[in-house]
Amino acid sequence: MINGLRAGVSGLIVAILALTGTAWAADEAPRAAAPAATVAGGYGVNPGDILEISVWREEGLQKQVIVRPDGYFSFPLTGDIRAEGRTIEDIRRDVATSVSRFVPDPVVSIAILEPRGSKVYIIGQVNRAGEYPINRFVDVVQAISMAGGFTPFAQLDNIKILRREGTTQTAIPFSYGDIAAGKRLQQNIVLKPGDTVLVP
Prior knowledge:
Blueprint: H1 2-32, E1 38-39, E2 42-43, E3 50-55, E4 62-66, E5 72-75, E6 79-82, H2 88-99, E7 108-114, E8 119-124, E9 130-133, H3 140-146, E10 159-165, E11 168-174, H4 176-180, E12 196-199
Parallel strand pairs: 8-12
Antiparallel strand pairs: 1-2, 3-4, 3-7, 5-6, 8-9, 10-11, 10-12
């Protein structure tokens, strides 16, 4: 009877810890959601991001991983897991499912250590052309400000935002003159990681 009671208590503790693990992962998402790349439910992970993954009470399953250019990362007992464009909670569930084949009731925690993949590029007639990390929502006007504003030769009404989605690249027009006049404000879109702001 005592053994049965102990087993029941042990099962209850495992269940509580599993729920606690879910809470930890949910806490990580809002902290990581500051960068501009977002999907439904939180920050969308990008290639180049560094993640810290740990399984509670499993020393061999605590590791920092980098999301490869193909959008995947590798972790012990899971093989390759797709991360690009997915939330931390989505990835946590995949890791937990894979690890559960070897570790009963795994409590998985994932955090974004460095969102290195969240960058935009600003080139052309700006004072400080280059690549810029974006750790929050950044629109076109804010990005131009980050680059030090325009040079005297900039064509303010012929700016383009170059955006690549898969194998397709689009050029989104942007007129700074309209924005300055308070017109067509919908042009001032929030940039996505990998966007290039081209100021001719």
